[in-house]
Amino acid sequence: MSDELPEVPAPANEVQGEGVDGVLFDIDDTLVDLAQAMGRTLQAIPDPALSHLGDDDWVRYKALFAADPQRHYDRFLAGELTFEEQRVHRVRHARAGFTPEPFLGQVAEAWVREYEQMLPLHFRPYDDVVPLLDELDARGIPYGAVSNNVHDYQRAKLDRAGLERIRVLVGIDTVGVAKPDPGIYLEGARLIGTPPVRTLYVGDNRLIDAVGARSAGLVGAWLDRAGTGSGAGTDSGTWAGSGGGSGAVVAPSEDAGEGETEVPRITGLQAVLQFLPSVR
C-alpha cells in the first residue's frame, strides 16, 4: 500500500502535521458493501409479483429500496418503527412502482423472515478495507466502528463480513443516541483511547458522518466512493454497485454551499493513510 497520495485539504482547525492517533469508521457502505448485499438479497427472494421485471427494472427497484426516499430508517432511529417495520415500509414503497399486488399480512411477514435469513449471506467488505486495517495494525493505530444501528446486529454483520478484528463497536443502544449526536462519536474515541481532536471518523454520509463527527470535536472525512462530490448519502445506503474507487484524496465537498461546513472528501479508504503520522 503506497503512502504517495495527494495532500488532504484539511480546514485550518483540523489536525495538521502530526496526524491523528486513532480511526473510527461507519459500517454500512463504508466497511461493508450493504447496498450490494441488499440488492443481491432482494433479487434472490422469490416474488411472483416481480417476476416480470427486466434487468433495468431490477436496478431501479433495488435503488428505490436502498435509497429509502420516505426516510423509514430515520423513523426507526426515532423509535417510531421497529427494525423489521422499516424494512416492510421500504419494500412496500419500492414494490408499488412495479406491481399492484399488496404487500401485507403473511406475505410481508414471510418476506421479512426470508430477507433476514438471506441478507447476511451477502455481507462482504470492500476491497480496500482489509489492506487498510493491515496497515493500521502494522503502525499500531487503534481503530473501531460507530454505527447508527444496534450493537449486536452490527457485531454479527462485521463478523459475517470477515471483520472480527474490529473489536471496538459502538451502536445506538450503547449510549442511547444516534449520529449525529456528539455522544456516540465521543464514546467511540473513548473506547479506542484517543483524544477526540486526534481521532479520525470516516463515513459515507457527508452530513451525518463527516460533519457530525467534526461538530463533536473529531476529524471528520466523507467517503465518497462514487467520486461524484454530490449528495449527502444515507446511512441505509444508496445503490451504486460495488463501488471501490482509487483512494485518491480530492477537494472538500463540492456540494457544500455558502455557510456549510467543509470536510475532506476521499474516494477510497487508502486515503486514510494521509491523516496518519508520517512513517519515518
Describe this structure in words.
The chain starts with 21 loop residues before the first strand and ends in a 14-residue tail after the last strand. By secondary structure, it is of the alpha/beta class. Strand 4 (199-203), helix 10 (206-215) and strand 5 (219-223) form a beta-alpha-beta unit. Helix 1 packs across helix 2 and helix 2 (55-67) runs antiparallel to helix 4. It has helices at residues 34-44, 55-67, 72-77, 83-96, 105-118, 129-139, 151-160, 172-175, 182-192, 206-215, and strands at residues 22-25, 143-146, 168-170, 199-203, 219-223, 249-250, 265-266. 37% of the residues lie in helices and 9% in strands. Residues 1-17 and 232-259 have low confidence and may be disordered. The protein is elongated, with a radius of gyration of 19 Å. The protein has a 7-stranded mixed sheet, sandwiched between helices.
Keywords:
280 residues; alpha/beta; 7-stranded mixed beta sheet; 37% helix; disordered N terminus
Compose a concise summary of this entry.
The chain is of the alpha/beta class and 280 residues long. The protein is built from 10 helices and 7 strands.
Give the percentage of residues in beta strands. 5-15%
The pLDDT mean sits at 85
- How far apart are the termini? 16 Å
Give the C-alpha Rg.
19 Å
H and E order: EHHHHHHEHEHHEHEEE
Number of E-type strands: 7
Number of helices: 10
- Secondary-structure content class: alpha/beta
Biggest sheet, spatial arrangement of strands:
3-2-1-4-5-7-6
> In percent, how helical is the residue content?
25-40%
Unreliable stretches, pLDDT < 50, 5 or more residues?
1-17, 232-259
Tell the overall outline.
Answer: elongated
Give the biggest sheet: 7 strands, mixed
